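Continuing the batch. This is chain 6 of the set; chains 1 through 5 are on the previous pages. Same settings as before, nothing changed between runs. Recording input and output for traceability.
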Amino acid sequence: MTLALRVTITNLILDLTFVVCPLCGKMSSLRTFNPGSLDLDIYVQDVKGLGRGRGFKVVGKSSALNKPSITQPIKSRVLDLSLMLYERRLLSQEEIIGRFKLSPPEDLEEERDALRADLSDTEYQLKQVEEERDILRTDLSETEEHLNEARVKIERYSNRLNELIGLVADVLDEDSDDWEVEEDGAYAILKSGVERLIESYQALKASEAEEEDI
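Output for chain 6:
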């Protein structure tokens, strides 16, 4: 924004033009307007008065980049100004990309397509994993069912072995706990009992044969 002032000096009329900063509203002479010469920083200054009519003196200067109360409204205004310049085609997309060192739209589209392809592959792999998981769950369920059936059969066989052990012990009129068994388990106990039953039967047959001979 420019502001034209007309200054009359005696009979001479001068046209002086000033630039009004769209960020802060400060007026600067167009002849001396050079924002690029300023430091890239946001400063706050401390001043003190030099007395009536003598102005002020800067006594301190520091960066305000760490003060959100100052940087936030400046940032918001800069964004508005950038959008205005872009909409008026005074600021191009290429300038924005170059200044902020952003990836060109073509590269972004390629990255987007690559990400979409990766996402598609990931979704496909995830679907395969879920299918394998369902298969494993089915197999596990069937295995648990078979395992339960096997446990029932083992328990039934164990009960049957204990019954047979009890019958053999009753025939021998002995306590199965007294049998000498080399291995642990009901089958070994039953085997020992059957062997003792066979020995007892053979001894009985031998005794009957001796009595017949007499």
